[in-house]
Structures are given as structure tokens and as C-alpha cells.
Please model this.
Amino acid sequence: MRKRFRSAAFWVVAVFAFSSVVLAQAAQQPGAADAKLVPRAPDGKPDLSGTWTGGARPTGGRLAPQHSDPGTLELTEWGEGKFKWNRGPEIGDAEDVYRGQHVRTEYDPVYHCYPLGLVRLGPPLYIIRGGSGATGVTMAIIQTPGKVLIIHQYRNSVRHIYTDGREHPKALENTWNGHSIGRWDGDTLVVDTVGLRDESWLDTGGHEHSTQLHVVERFRRVSYDTLEIERTLTDPIALAKPFTATASLMLSPDVDLNENGQQYDCTQFMVRKPFFGEGENTLLGIHEPTTGAY
Amino acid sequence: MKNRFMGSIALAGLLACSVVAPGVAQQPGGAGSIPRTPDGKPDLSGIWRTDSSTAGPIRPTSWGASRYNYNKLPEGQGARAEYDPIMHCYRPGIARLGPPLLVPSKSIQVRMYDESSPFPGGPSEFDVIELRYYPGRIWMIYQYNQEVRQIFTDGREHPAVDEYDQNSLWWNGHSVGEWDGDTFVVDTANIRNETWLNNQGYENRELHLVERFRRIDAETLEIERTFTDPVALAQPYTTRAILKVRHDLTFTENVICDQHYGRKVGFGFGGVLGINNHPQ
Model:
């Protein structure tokens, strides 16, 4: 009797295990009736692929004031100095100051058509003026064995996140989006990024960072259509304390990325600004000489 | 007890075999060893670098010829650099992105130790693409200027072109693709006209491009491109590139005119003060 019971229990477990595999595979098929489970890649990890939008209102931390809530970024003296310089003298009433309306836009790299850089690409994306400056992203994630690709709508900026076990190179050139490596911690993809150029800002408000900025992101597909990205910024030069905020994105399969995602058409800038001689920065209406050195 | 243990191992083995990774399935008796996707088509995905290429002659219209004569330097010296849009930080455009990549070596600068330097090897080393499948489209990512484009496979049509609407024209055009047997045929329209066709100074105005992607064998991808332009070209212009699979390659971040964004660039805001370089 006991032998027969054990045999039955074994088969119940086996059938259950087999049907979980079948269900998981069904979740990978488009249009499957019960495809609300988080899809899995062939290696068993959650599949983060998809077009994701949103993330304008992160929780846990605020780079800049948002309505009546103050910002939670804590700066070093160095960071505070840069911030004050970028904001310029406080003209206008307290309301304007509070809403961040008086940043010196001529110092904002985005007005000079610099690439945004990893942090400002977000989520949230920091390109608009006023309020916290945060807006939602649209991005496509393509997960493959060994690499996760993220393509942002904004300037179609591309991130390569290597998940093949490699380390950051010893001799690392600083780039706009840094060097990113990812490792799975259970069902969370932990992405570590270093090697960021310091010519970018953290947001629209004038917060800067140094080349020692270290970004750790935790990607978690908490449900079929929700992706959470918890991002922690550490910078011993610019930030007195690590800054963490979590953005939540929504799966948006009907949204197409397109080419003209950037708010300011930097083509105008390019037309007027030849390599040789001088040119006009039509975004700011100022005359900018260039070296012509090439 | 031992028998049951072996039995569960056998069952686990069976379950493991039932999880199939796309792109790995081999077509029994198919053309050589070409990897195929579950729908039976050749798998185009991966990282590819151009191994060799040919480009047919360009036969311009009289308008096209007048533009070419304006842009070129005297006999055989190429084009005037100051007229080349890439030298003004324009994006290269779908024609020059290739493959084959047809851009000036000088335009390939990468950042090394806080300085921008010319990339050794020039366009031939930089002629790398990555193809990735995605619902309803194939993404193409280029090493040069981290360009991307989508090839829509959901049967959609090109949007109507409105010359006065910048949103209906793209640097990399609007691409739709479908399979013709084992060849992937891509039709691209809505191409912006501020670009050149190659380094020599041939321009385009109403460019239309048809590309044929063919995975010849496990290691080789052929891309044949045929350009037509009723304003600029009297006859179709064809290029052909042979690419080899190179999964070992790591993309380098590349932004055209990256060297403009240094701390000290001549005078002005990039210069004396420098972006983020404040007197403190």
C-alpha cells in the first residue's frame, strides 16, 4: 500500500512539473490564452524584452522637487558648488526657484546637442523644463543570451549590457552610456555601470556628477506588464550619500519607437555649425566659434 | 528506490529536451548548416562584420551629375570635405551606413583617455552590424554612430511623404521587410535628402532602396542593395557586401563629432569656460 502511495505521489509531482514547463512555454507563445505569467528566456530567467513606457514618477527618491515634495539628493560641497553655478543667480520669486525655472540653459549640455548620458536617459527621462524635469521614457529591451540591448526613443541611444560574465575592462574609456555588465540575482537583473563621461548632467536641474559615478540598476519584471527599475547612484565626488529611486514601466507593445524622438532637433544645430569656422547654435540663438581642429 | 530515482532523472531529461532555444534548431536535410528560426527561415540574427564588398558605378541624371561636379575635388581627389554632410556632424544616412560603410576615415573618432582619436583601421574595421529579432520587426544596430533602424515585418506600408513634415522623412528611412523564399527583401522609402550616397559627392533627392539579405552559410551573410532615385540617378545603383559572423566583437560607443564635446574646445562655452568646467 505504501509503495503504491509513493508511486502515485511521484507521478503527481512529475505531472505537475511537466505541466509547469508546458505553461511556461505557452506563456512564450504570443496570443496564448493564459499568457499573463512573466515570460521566461530559454535559460529560465525572466525575459525583459519588450517596448516599455513610463517611469516619470519614481518612488523612493527625487532628484529635484516635485510639486510640494522636496528633492532628496544630498550633495557634497563640490556637487553643491556645481549646482549653484548651473542655476545662476536666483532671479524671480521663490516659486520659480522652487520649480527649477532658472537653470542656466546655456550650460545644459542637451542644448548643445551632447548625448544625454545614462542617468538622464532614465527612466525617468530628464529633458523638459519646469517641475521636476522628469518625463516618461519609451524604450525597447532586447534580451539575448550574453547581452541585453536597450534602445531608447530619445536619440535612439543604445545601451549594451553584457551578461556573459565579463568584468569591466581595466583600461576603461569613459563613454556617454558607460560600460554595463549584468548578473542575475534570482529573478532580478543587477546591472553595474562605470566609466561614465562627466560632461553630462544628472537631470534638468543642473546636478552634475564626476567620472567616478557608479550606477547600479535592479531590473525586475514584477508582472507580465510591469517592469521596475531601482537605480542607485554613488559618486564620492558629487554625492554625499548614495541616491536611490525606483521607476515603474508599463509594457506597451503597440508603441513604436521612431527616429525623431528627441525634443530638440539637433539637425538644425548641425546644419549651422560646420567644422571649420564659426556657426550659430540655433537652439540657444548664440554664436559659437569652433576650433575647426580635426 | 534506485529505479525510481533513475526514472525521475529520465523524466527530467525528457523535460529538459522539450525546452528548445530558438535559432538553434537545425533543419534536417536543409541548405548546409544554416541556423533557422522556428518558422523555418534562415536566422539572420547576430553580429556581422563586412568582409568584402563591391559597388556598381553610379550613373547620375544631369542634375545628379551637376551636384557631383560641385562636390568633388579636381581629378580623382575625392570630394570636398567641407561639403560632406558627415563633416558637418550630419548623420550618415541609410545609403552610407551600408553595409558597406562608406564614410570618411576622419569621421571615425573614438574616445581614448579623455581625448578623441581617429579609430585605427577606419571604416573597414567599423563596418559592423547587429541584427536582433523583435515582435513585428527586426532591429539593426550599427557600430558607426550607434545608429539603429527597424525593419517592420508586420505587413505595414510606408507612411505618406510630406516634404514639409520632418516626421515623415528619416535619416535611415522607413523599412518594411518580407521573405521571398530564403531571401529577406527589405523595401526602404521616406529617406531624408540631406545625405550623400557615398564619399564621392553623389547626392540623393527621392531615394528608394531595396535590399536582399541572404544567409549563404552558417558564417556568411550577403546583403545586396539596389538604389533608385528618379531625380538623382539615371539607372539603378547596386552594392553588394559579404559579411562574416563575429559574435566575439564588442561594440564601441561611437558618436559622430564626439570630439566637439570635450572640456576645452576652442573658445566659447565649450572652450574657455568649458562645459562643467567652472572657475571655482
In short: Chain A is about 20% helix and 25% strand. Residues 2-28 of chain A form the longest helix (27 residues). The radius of gyration of chain A is 23 Å.
